[in-house]
Each structure stands twice: as structure tokens, then as C-alpha cells.
From TrEMBL, chains A, B:
HTH tetR-type domain sequence ranges: 6-66
Keyword Transcription regulation attributed: yes
Native organism: Nonomuraea roseoviolacea subsp. carminata
Keyword set includes DNA-binding: yes
DNA-binding region residue numbers: 29-48
A Pfam family: TetR_N
Upper classification of the organism: Bacteria, Bacillati, Actinomycetota, Actinomycetes, Streptosporangiales
InterPro entries: Homeodomain-like_sf, HTH_TetR, Tet_transcr_reg_TetR-rel_C_sf
Alphabetic keyword roster: DNA-binding, Transcription, Transcription regulation
Record protein name field: TetR/AcrR family transcriptional repressor of nem operon
Length: 186, 186
DNA sequence: ATTAGTCAAGAACGTTCGTTCCTAAACTCC
DNA sequence: GGAGTTTAGGAACGAACGTTCTTGACTAAT
């Protein structure tokens, strides 16, 4: 009963995640959200409670629909070089990684709930990289774990470089070279 | 002539850089700066023009006094493993790297002047990593450049992980393992 | 001693922020 | 076809933002 809502909640969440991936949390106003999402203020507050509530929902959506599949593809990559190619190759995941980047840098330190959302995702990232790396009996196990952690860091770092303005060709070069090197020595 | 100023400009800039390294640009208000720096509003505006002006001066100060020396130590490290240890080992540079991190992620995309400040610094970082890696005649030159780029990305990525809440021991493990691996294959 | 110039202190400015209130419209159920 | 309920729309709220203005304190040169 009651008037039916004139918007699709899933669509709104997806659009919000996209918007939050372009600028910082504080850099996006409620007016921006209202304008960009085409949904009125009142509806947003009714549905998500607050700006932070909408942000958290959008973040969780992005982690689930963008990052989680990426993690799966990394795990299935076979080797570290493939994992790197998978993580950096797909432009569709750029928005998800950007949102993850900003959540980690500027939100997690001041919002414990954001930190709690990120921790398992980053751990899963590490685990996936670990899986992609495979076991090598002649190598120290801790060593492999550490390299997997470093791979996650490298993916995020390269994405950060791209966001900071480093040309895409340079990023691609770094990714390709690292993949090449990792492959040769694995 | 005139009343002498009751604060040291260099000290203020250093304190501002430290404060800006803890939270996002928008997350720090002018009141926060006035309180933390112990300098009055009017003096800050007289000296730096605006909040953004103070931020830019603080950013440049940090790049020059924290990042530039770090880049030099990376270049002098001798090999990639040493470069990684140098970059992650010193807690004194954490503030500088955090500020660099947030500047790259959230300011550079919306403030061209910040992007212009960061670009040469990141390029210098790459160059230093390139120097630390050294030349290996049996290896492709582009390959070495790419690995140097990746090292910069890894340093930033690991620093990001630390900021997002990943335990320090985990970060250290990743750094040590990567250093170990790089050393063995270099 | 007076004057001119700079700085400190704090009130106050107009805007913008996130949020809430109020009313009209649109639907289901009885 | 009212009654009841939920949404849409827009105005309006207090608070906080970056910035400016006004006043009084202080110092150096005249």
C-alpha cells in the first residue's frame, strides 16, 4: 500500500557508488547526490538514513559487485603475472578500485565501520594473490605470503598512480614489466 | 616597523603539514588549523592567503623536506631490496608519505596545481628506484624501468595498506618477503 | 612623544553543509 | 469511493564552513 517509489534502489546505489568513486566523501554534497541520482532528498533519507548511510551501502555494493569478482579472477589467474594483468587490465573495475582507494586512504582512518568493511576485502585480496602465486616447495612459505601481500599493494599503488595523473601508458608499462619479471622467475 | 609576529612561519608550515597528513583536506577545518597551530586566523590568512594556500605551502614543504630526502636515500640504496627497506623502515617519513598518499588520491584529481606538484616527485621516485635497481645487461632495459615503476607503486601501496588498518607486522612481512625475493633474483 | 604600520584577538559575514518539516500527490485496501 | 499509508517536492532549519571586518595592542622610525 502507499504510493510506489519512482526509482530503483539498486540503480541508485550503483550510481552513488560511481559518483563516490570520482571525488572524496567530503567533496560530494547531498545536493550533488540528489542531482546526479535524480532522486529527491527525502527519498534518499527515507531509504538510507543519512549521507553516511548511503555511502556505506554504496561502498558495500561496490566491494561485492566490483571488487569481489575481481578478487575471484585474481585467484583464478594461475600466476602472479596473470593476476596483475587481470587486476589492471579491465577498465570496468577502475571505479571500484578508485572507491576502494579513497575509502582506504581517507575514510577508514576516521570511520571504523569503513575500516571493518575494508579489512576482510583486503585480506581476501591477499589470499587471492597467494592462490595465484601457487606453492613452490623450494621456497619459503612466508616468502610466498609476503609476495602476495606485495602484489596487492602494487595493484593498489599502480591504480593510485593512475589516479594521480601518471599516464596510462606508463602504468601499463610498469604492469607489463613486473608481470614479465615475475613470470620469468616463478 | 610594526609589531613583530609572534610565530615562526617555518614551524607553522611544518605543523600544518603534520596535521594535513592525518586527515583529508576537507576533513580539516580552519578552526582545527587555528587551534592546532596556535596561530590566529588573521595571521594565517595574511601569511598564506587561504586554506588552500596554506595547504599548498605545507604540501611543498613536505615534498621537499620529507619525500625528497627519502627519494635520495632510495637512489643510494644500491638494490631494490634496500630501497624498499629504506622507504618503509623509517617512521619519520610516515607523515610525509601519508600526505603524499592523500594528495594523490583526493586532491590531485580536483586540484591541477596539486597534480603539478606531485608529478615530478613521483617521476623522481621512479628515477630513484631505477637507479637503485641498477643496470643488468642480460635484461631488457624497459623491463628495469617497469620494475622501478612497480617498486614505487608497491611502496605507496604498502603505506596505503598500513593507513587502512592492516597490522604493521603484516606490512613488514610483505616488505621483507619482497625484498628477499628481489634480492635473490637480482 | 607622536606617528605610522603591523600584528593579535575575536566578533561577524555570507554560503554551504547535512538534515528535517510540511504539504500535495499517488497508490492499496476495505 | 473514502480511509489509510507511502512517496515526491520544495521550503526551511541550525550548524559549520571559509573568509573578512573591526578593534586594540605593540613596535620602529620620526
Amino acid at each position: 500500500m502507499g504510493r510506489p517509489r519512482g526509482f530503483d534502489e539498486a540503480t541508485v546505489v550503483r550510481s552513488a557508488a560511481e559518483l563516490f568513486s570520482t571525488r572524496s566523501y567530503d567533496g560530494i554534497s547531498m545536493d550533488d547526490l540528489v542531482t546526479h541520482l535524480g532522486v529527491h532528498r527525502n527519498s534518499l533519507y527515507k531509504t538510507f538514513g543519512s549521507k553516511r548511510g548511503l555511502y556505506l551501502v554504496a561502498l558495500r555494493w561496490s566491494l561485492r559487485h566490483h571488487i569481489a569478482p575481481l578478487v575471484d579472477r585474481v585467484a583464478a589467474a594461475g600466476d602472479l603475472a596473470g593476476a596483475l594483468r587481470v587486476a589492471l587490465g579491465e577498465p570496468a573495475t577502475e571505479a571500484g578500485l578508485n572507491l576502494l582507494l579513497m575509502a582506504a586512504v581517507e575514510r577508514a582512518p576516521v570511520d571504523p565501520e569503513v575500516a571493518d568493511e575494508l579489512a576482510p576485502v583486503l585480506a581476501a585480496f591477499d589470499q587471492a594473490a597467494r592462490t595465484a602465486a601457487g606453492r613452490h616447495p623450494d621456497r619459503d612459505e612466508q616468502d610466498d605470503d609476503g609476495v602476495a601481500l606485495a602484489l596487492t599493494a602494487t595493484i593498489l599503488g599502480l591504480r593510485l598512480r593512475a589516479r594521480a595523473g601518471t599516464p596510462g601508458t606508463t602504468i601499463d608499462q610498469a604492469g607489463a614489466a613486473l608481470a614479465h619479471r615475475l613470470t620469468r622467475h616463478t
